[in-house]
């Protein structure tokens, strides 16, 4: 079936925006799918779900939707009711959709899931769900017809993520290039936005512990002292992490309150665009499994013409590495990557945008995704 015919239809996307107020990076990740699918001609609906919705959570979701022209295209479900599109209309829209894209299986509403013609599980945290499944801790995949992951190496010999006997389709992180235009002169700092820990605890699987970002970042603490560049992090780190906070400060990492950067969609975008480049440290889970994971935030840096120095998760098997996007495994390699970008910044910045267009352009990524799950 051609995309022209498919794009005359509707698609429903479900995920968590309301429960993560003032977390613009997460909201933008979901918006890339919603805005990208709309750009392809689809009638999109976003469905969020909470047990009880607070005024702050409701206000955040309403703000995100209205700022991006989706103010008539969302519903927040909670016990006893809904806000936005009424529940009955949601069921009608889901029933008429080509598919329901359920991010990490977030939507649990059986009535709505049953109404969907195709239920597509989208895995954005590769390794965690699969290991939980194999360990008997949780089955987030149940009730879905298609399984899609951004862990692009899953199923390959070197990747340690179990497939759980499922037929995994792989996809890249989409970025809507019109929303992330190429920028002119850059800032002076390597930056990033992220959390020191996460919602998930480390997982012990086949005798190895697969951990979080904190477990990788400590390996690169001394980087700012080894290069002639500045580093700034909008880092969500608990004030009780006193040893790590002291080490970050001692080694020259400049920290800014994450709420000042992530509390607004536009401010978040401007922060990335005003950077010199991104320095990305991945979760230990992504690194040690050789997952092929790549950050949606990094795709936004690239689209803005900002180079990315990314910790290697098996990226060399997937992308052209060395210009615009530079991967590292060791501290010495991180030093070399940062120095190379500093020496020939214009070359790296130009190549960054080219990589975004070639590999992460939402038109290309989402066309392939739709054709794979709706054919």
Describe the structure.
With 375 residues, the protein is an alpha/beta fold. It folds into 2 domains: 3-172 and 362-374, Rossmann fold (3-Layer(aba) Sandwich), CATH 3.40.50; 178-359, 3-Layer(aba) Sandwich (Rossmann fold), CATH 3.40.50.2000. The chain is built from 16 helices and 16 strands. It has helices at 3-6, 24-39, 55-67, 87-96, 110-115, 128-135, 213-217, 223-226, 242-250, 258-262, 265-273, 284-288, 296-303, 331-343, 345-360, 362-374; strands spanning 10-14, 43-49, 74-78, 81-84, 97-103, 119-123, 146-149, 168-170, 189-195, 203-205, 208-210, 230-236, 253-256, 277-280, 308-311, 325-328. An 8-stranded mixed beta sheet has the order 4-3-2-1-5-6-7-8, sandwiched between helices. Helix 2 (24-39) packs across helix 16 (362-374) and helix 13 crosses helix 15. The chain starts with a helix and ends with a helix.
Task: Draw up the topology in text.
Blueprint: H1 3-6, E1 10-14, H2 24-39, E2 43-49, H3 55-67, E3 74-78, E4 81-84, H4 87-96, E5 97-103, H5 110-115, E6 119-123, H6 128-135, E7 146-149, E8 168-170, E9 189-195, E10 203-205, E11 208-210, H7 213-217, H8 223-226, E12 230-236, H9 242-250, E13 253-256, H10 258-262, H11 265-273, E14 277-280, H12 284-288, H13 296-303, E15 308-311, E16 325-328, H14 331-343, H15 345-360, H16 362-374
Parallel strand pairs: 1-2, 1-5, 2-3, 5-6, 6-7, 7-8, 9-12, 9-14, 12-13, 14-15, 15-16
Antiparallel strand pairs: 3-4, 10-11
